Amino acid sequence: MRDDANLNQLLVLANMESYNAVLIEQDKPQSERLVLLRELAVKQMQTLSSLDTTQIAALPGGGEK
To answer: Can you give the pTM of this predicted structure?
Structure first.
């Protein structure tokens, strides 16, 4: 799955893994975690897809590889 994911998807997945760990520490049941994680993923993917990535190159160090 990760092999076919783009950068935005990998970023959201990493955030979801971290957030899931926090939810587990809070003893949230799996059913509730799934709802919260899905909401997080949808919001983050919408935000990331709305960004104008062409402006990143204009930031200091944005054009470096």
So the answer is: 0.74
